[in-house]
Amino acid sequence: MDTANSTYYSLRYEHADALHRRGDCLMNRDEALRIGQTDDCKARLDNPTDCEDREFGVVVSNGDGSGWRLIRLCFNAEVRVNGDPVGYVRQLSDGDRISVEGIAQELLFNVHNDDVYSGRGIQTKPAALSRRWLALLVALPVLLFLLLLLYFNGRFNDGKQLTDDMKAEARSSVFMLRADSVWLVSITGTDTTRLASFSFLETGSGIVGTAFLTTDSLLVTARHCIEPWLNDTSALMTTDTATIRLLPVKWALAAETHNQTTDGDTRLDLVSWCSLYQTTDSTEQHVATVRSTDFNMDKSRDEIIELGDFSHEYYWRSIAPRYRRTEMMLGDVAWMPAAGVVTQPCGTLQRATAAELKKHLREGQPLHFMGHPAIGAVPHFEQRDDQVQMRPHFDTLGLPDGDIHHNGELVPGFSGGPVLMRTGRNEWRVVGIVSVVDRLEQTRKYSVPITEIDRMKGAKP
């Protein structure tokens, strides 16, 4: 037997829960295997509470055949190996037990040298056939109830859809936003020096998003559209900067590490140059060029994450770690006065007030999205419909203090676009800004309430 080609590991579930029986296991060798509660995780753990689903860690190969290591992704829940907390990364050994604070399930890590595993990606030990039939019988009444609920809910919401005239009017104030290049700059006092530059256009990877213009002359988008290096998973998934291919991500990692570990007068920063376009289905008309530094952003919600391996230390600035979306995503908004930037200083999109959000933003209410999907050779304008899945809660000032949750077929490129809702017979408002659309297979989407701009400006509701 070729031991080098037959060595793999398994993760065995040690306790029965809502997702697994005791003894169910995953077999893997080369792929990165995520452990957590989201749909992206191959090693799924039950979440019996109302808390946001999280990703706790990922098992990755050392790359040199010496074994595997566990990288911690969640920093608001303690990840443990044999009961010992994992700081950031932990080398795994045969017989290790992986657990998470507050979750009873444990995963037993074992190394194998046999020909059981074929090596064709992550494989799951199949569940019993009788269990599948039982699950199907239980699910049938639930599916029938959901179908009836969707039917009657659709009839109820027919009178709350935006009319074609409303959509056409709104479209005139929605732009395609593209990050063309990024500069790494050094800031000393009032002096700014460009150290290096990177062009997305030369690499054929222009970052596409959406921006929109409001009736009170604000150009609004999502912050990660103008700072496209934010929340890049490659920075969180590696302990070696040499493996990061995109220069802006590497620069952001180096800049944050410099700013966090150096007490000098010089600060490193990244500045992106973005283009605005008014588009039809087949043409793009350039409207303006803006810089990320022109926008107002609330960085008080930023998370500074300490990364590193056994010998190096890095820092990464994030606005929305996946394990704390509902708390951090409110920072994903950027706005600037439109006067002098675009030829039409005022748009047709009126921002909803906190009182209007509290009155109209209800579970099941229709939502409408406008944006430029970054799929295909030519980004084009599209309109999508959806429904509110979870309304934000409101703080003592009456302002929303949580994300707008929804499902739907939104894709990358809609980020920064307006979330519209009909609020009366001839009235409609912008209630949010599309924020998280980071994977095509992801079912849940998140938008920032439009009133976060008022919170940033210090206005009262």
Characteristic key phrases:
461 residues, alpha+beta, eight-stranded antiparallel beta sheet, seven-stranded antiparallel beta sheet, 17% helix
Beta-strand residue percentage: 35-45%
What is the β-strand count? 28
- Could you report the average pLDDT, rounded to the nearest whole number? 82
Percent helix, as a range, is 10-25%
Number of helices: 9
| Biggest sheet details | 8 strands, antiparallel
Low-confidence stretches: 153-158
How far apart are the termini? Answer: 71 Å
Gyration radius, rounded:
24 Å
Q: Tell the overall outline.
A: globular
Structural class: alpha+beta
Fold and architecture overview:
The chain has 461 residues and is α+β, with helices and mostly antiparallel strands. The protein is built from 9 helices and 28 strands. The chain has helices at 3-6, 129-156, 164-171, 223-226, 233-236, 247-261, 325-328, 354-360, 452-457, and strands at 7-13, 25-28, 33-36, 43-44, 55-61, 68-72, 79-81, 84-85, 89-91, 97-100, 103-113, 123-124, 174-188, 191-199, 207-213, 218-221, 266-279, 284-291, 296-297, 303-308, 313-318, 334-337, 366-371, 382-390, 404-406, 418-424, 427-436, 445-449. Strands 13, 14, 15, 16, 17, 18, 19 and 22 form an 8-stranded antiparallel beta sheet that branches. The radius of gyration is 24 Å and the shape is globular. The relative contact order is 0.12. The model is unreliable at 153-158 (pLDDT under 50).
